[in-house]
Automatic annotation (TrEMBL):
InterPro entries: AAA+_ATPase, ABC_transporter-like_ATP-bd, ABC_transporter-like_CS, ABC_transpr_LolD-like, MacB-like_ATP-bd, P-loop_NTPase. Residues 2-222 form the ABC transporter domain. GO terms for cellular component: membrane protein complex; plasma membrane. It comes from Streptacidiphilus fuscans. Keywords: ATP-binding, Nucleotide-binding, Transport. This is ABC transporter ATP-binding protein. The lineage of its organism: Bacteria, Bacillati, Actinomycetota, Actinomycetes, Kitasatosporales. It comes from the Bacteria. GO terms for molecular function: ATP binding; ATP hydrolysis activity; transmembrane transporter activity. It holds the Pfam family ABC_tran. Coiled coil: none annotated.
């Protein structure tokens, strides 16, 4: 599903350049949950941004389901992010004025999904993440764990093939984090998606199919 070859990313130039990624190569098989671990500053977020088409590499190659991201223009990357990749962020990224149901429905509105189909998918996803009874509550009325569950449901809205999650339990206590991680593992299985998750959480590492260890911009173990 994901193939990364000799990926490099630098910020700045000359002697002051910061080399965030230094020749990273790995693959993620379809239907696999891969955890990406590493200390702060190791390059995890940079790597996820590149794989998700949110940034361009300085060198190397990224293929998503056989498509070379370097060959896609901005419109192509936008379509990829909208239709084939779901994102889950540490800060949840929910719109505070919208209800849980409305937040989950946002990606489908952007794709002009028919109203009846959209509403049915929203109900299905909120039930999947255990929030069917919280559909009309706004983010400020939900706990951190509940907000992250809404974010996971939203990431699944357009039936993506790949989920990219950056420290999804970073703002949660350990018990809530474990609950969210188990949910993510269950969702990968039930929805048949592939997931690449940056995390410090040992619970996810135990639940993952594989763990990639990133240090100083390089994969040191797989």
């Amino acid at each position: 599903m994901v193939e990364v070859v000799d990926l490099r990313k630098s910020f700045g130039s000359g002697p002051t350049a910061v080399h965030a990624l230094r020749g990273v190569s790995f693959t993620v098989r379809r239907g696999e949950l891969t955890a990406l671990k590493g200390r702060s500053g190791s390059g995890k977020t940079t790597l996820l941004n590149l794989v998700g088409g949110l940034d361009r590499p300085s060198g190397g190659q990224i293929r998503i389901d056989g498509r070379d991201l370097a060959e896609l223009g901005e419109d192509g990357l936008l379509e990829l992010r909208r239709d084939r990749i779901g994102f889950v962020f540490q800060s949840f990224g929910l719109l505070p004025i919208l209800t849980a149901a409305e937040n989950v429905g946002v990606p489908m509105r952007l794709c002009r999904t028919p109203v009846a189909e959209r509403e049915e998918r929203v109900r299905e996803l909120l039930a999947l993440v255990g929030l069917a009874d919280h559909a009309q509550q706004r983010p400020g009325e939900l706990s951190g764990g509940q907000q992250q569950r809404v974010a996971i449901a939203r990431a699944l809205a357009n039936r993506p093939e790949l989920i990219i999650a950056d420290e999804p339990t970073g703002q949660l206590d350990s018990d809530t984090g474990r609950s969210v991680m188990r949910l993510l593992r269950a969702v990968v299985r039930s929805e048949g998606v592939t997931a690449l998750v940056a995390t410090h959480d040992p619970t996810l590492m135990e639940l993952a199919d594989r763990v990639l260890d990133l240090r100083d911009g390089q994969i040191v173990s797989d």
